[in-house]
Design a protein that fits this description.
Length: about 190
């Protein structure tokens, strides 16, 4: 009889432990965010990359990467680009429908891109930073609530800007080589 009771106690303990572990894992990201906010830390994610190039190439590449979005602020001297709020309710509800999340009444996002110039080892370098603000509304009475992004859009935009930079630099190199070749073939 004692063995049966001890076996049942062990099963109950293991089930309780599994439930507590599952709840801990599910709420871990929310707890980390709450902990960061309580310390006054930054909870918004900023993604960046540093490349050796001139500022003009990086700035034009960032503008070209955002050409399908409506721009709200473009400040070349400050190196700041901000898009207008864009609706992505359908995309958020589609993705979250398969993820088991709640449906959103409305969702919107915007991008903030910073292009900062500097020098590293005597060569011009530029740091490009991308941040996505995502707001959702689940109930009319709750209003807009910021949520963390999944970092896919930010990394995609950084990749797109990087590829445009590479293409522009490669075209400039090819043009320079063809100019040098034309000058060598010219006779005076």
């Amino acid at each position: 009889m004692n063995r049966i009771l001890n076996g049942q106690k062990n099963r109950v303990r293991s089930v309780v432990f599994a439930v507590v572990l599952a709840c801990t894992l599910v709420s871990a990201s929310g707890c980390v965010t709450a902990y960061k906010e309580s310390l006054g830390g930054e909870t918004e994610q900023v993604f960046d990359r540093i490349d050796y190039m001139d500022f003009d190439t990086a700035w034009q590449s960032a503008l070209d990467a955002l050409k399908h979005d409506r721009l709200d602020v473009t400040n070349r001297e400050g190196g700041f680009i901000q898009t207008k709020w864009s609706d992505n309710t359908d995309a958020k509800n589609f993705v979250d429908a398969f993820g088991g999340g709640e449906a959103y009444l409305r969702a919107q996002y915007r991008f903030k891109v910073n292009v900062a110039k500097s020098f590293f080892n005597g060569r011009p370098a530029v740091k490009v930073s991308v941040q996505k603000d995502q707001l959702v509304e689940q109930d009319v009475l709750d209003g807009w609530v910021p949520i963390e992004t999944d970092s896919i859009d930010e990394n995609t935009l950084l990749y797109r800007i990087g590829r445009l930079i590479w293409i522009k630099m490669k075209l400039a190199q090819i043009e320079e080589q063809s100019t040098e070749k034309a000058l060598q073939n010219t006779t005076f």
